[in-house]
Amino acid sequence: MTDHASIKDTIEFMLKQFKPERYAYLVVSTVSFLLLLICIVLFIIENSMSAKNLGYVAGMVGSGGAISYTTSQLLRMWRDCIDILLQHIKEHA
């Protein structure tokens, strides 16, 4: 029973340690998603291709990259926790 408690404590510790980082990534992802939506709407409203529209395209590409990076970091944190759990299961199987 102590093995289950220790693995639970380890995962809870990791989640608490990653909490500020997770929230930062979630905020960046949310802001980037809103920027992406704004750029898409403004790009659609403008009918002609101009230097202003190229800025919207750059905003879409940049915010898409930020969303990809922050999401990958969030998934990496969860993968680390799951790897610890799977390692524990393999050791006690």
Notes on the protein architecture:
- Helix 1 (2-45) runs antiparallel to helix 2.
- It contains 2 helices and no strands.
- By secondary structure, the protein is mainly alpha-helical.
- The two termini are 14 Å apart.
Nutshell version of this structure?
By secondary structure, this protein is mainly alpha-helical.
Give the termini distance in whole angstroms: 14 Å
Overall form: rod-shaped
Total helices: the number is 2
Q: What's the helix-strand series? A: HH
Structural class: mainly alpha
Oligomer: single chain
Overall pLDDT, averaged? 86
Share of helix, binned: over 70%
Number of strands: 0
Computed CA radius of gyration, to the nearest angstrom: 20 Å
Low-confidence stretches: none
Strand content: under 5%
> Main sheet, how many strands, which sense, barrel?
none
Q: How would you summarize the topology of this molecule?
A:
Blueprint: H1 2-45, H2 51-91
List keywords for this structure.
2 helices; 93 residues
